[in-house]
Amino acid sequence: MQQSRYLVFFVRTLFFLCVAIFYTNCNQADLENQCDPNFKGYYETILFKILSGNTSKHCAVNLNQVLPPFFSPAPGHYNEPHFISISTITPGATIYITTDGSDPTDASTLYATPSSIWRLAGQRIRAIAIKPGMDHSPIVEGTYSLLPLKTGQTAIYSSGDDGSFGSGISTNYTGPSANATYPNDYISLDQSTGIIWKTCSQGLEGPTCAINSPGLTTGGITVLTTSCNALNSLNSGNGYAGYNTWRLPTMKELLTTNDASKTSLTIIDPTTLPSTANFAYWASTPYPPNTDRWYLDYSAGNSYATINTNGYYGRCVASLPPIETFSFTDHGDGTVKDNSTGLTWQKCSYGQNNDSTCSGGATPTSWATALTYCSSLSLGSKSWKLPNRNELVSLYDFTKATGPTIDQVTFPNTVSSASGYYWTSTTYAATSNAWYINFTTTFNSIYEGHPKNNSLYVRCVSY
């Protein structure tokens, strides 16, 4: 394989150099300046050095430097899922990356396999290629953004609501799939996010999770964390299904399995994630105000933090966790771009002054009025709508111990008092209600349903 890559590299190099030599023969030479690319001897000398194994510099060209890595697909914004691969055509070179903006070195994270855009969205990915005996490649970098997932709601309850737009990435699950080496081990893959799920909840096994031995594992956060970690020592240390990176999912990962269109058993794909209990599942994400932990309750599709010893269920993941840092660009006109999702947001809440601090008081309003307000907004010469549940929850910061649990520099004066909830365009299972996102810490929920004729706060999103 390595020899094949080297041959491709050599043929490409030879081809481009030959084309360059031919082209320069058609241009007037700059006297006999062998450092002038317009002089045919410039490329002939480089070609001769490569063919003879001479990697000394020719003029300013370093022939002993590893060629720079490149990204595929190209960095940018995407409205469909992709996996990011990083390559170099220098044979035998190793690629290292950072995602925090620092310069990568041979002590940085080793690039091994492609990673989903969903996992790395908004991160400043920097890469370097290194090969012993050669100069390091130049550092390259790229940033990706990806729309949030669809909520699952397709019904239209009012003009301008979630069902009207159907915004987001469609989920795409495959499985259950048995491992070739360990045929009793089943996994399910979410190809939209790259999350590798253990097909069954802890305590169940088989392709349909019908093997009920020893039975569904219930317990506090410690019990389920230990249960997931124990999967890594199975199969003589090779791990369940050949993976030894099993863990309890983060809240961001767990929320991807929730379907807003369902009244109960809100698991988004019961075929690839079968026999899901119609109750609460633990996430590994802490609740910073105290020792509580987050959970997702499939019996109603809502999410809370609660005492970490409660007897809940768990489903494990083996993929690398998402990098959950925020990156925003303030356009200075009352609009803010989220560099992770590519969405453009209204900086200030409805009713506040459109200034740098969002001064003044936000105005609570009914769900219907919120839909109308956002659809008529012309801020920044853009088209606007009320965000759906997945769009608005993408702004939620799980690391904050006090409200508002949102980037307070980017979104100043966000309401954080009791009942300071924000409407989404997604209707609740009880259709007289709609979902809200809770950015306060006076009530320990992420989202819940609320009567549409009551008044909550509004922040619009562009589309």
From TrEMBL:
InterPro entries: GH29D-like_dom, Lcl_C. Keywords: Membrane, Transmembrane, Transmembrane helix. It comes from Leptospira brenneri. Residues 73-140 form the GH29D-like beta-sandwich domain. The chain crosses the membrane at residues 7-24. The keyword Transmembrane helix applies. The keyword ATP-binding does not apply. Residues 189-317, 334-461 form the Lcl C-terminal domain. Pfam families: CHB_HEX_C_1, Lcl_C. This is DUF1566 domain-containing protein.
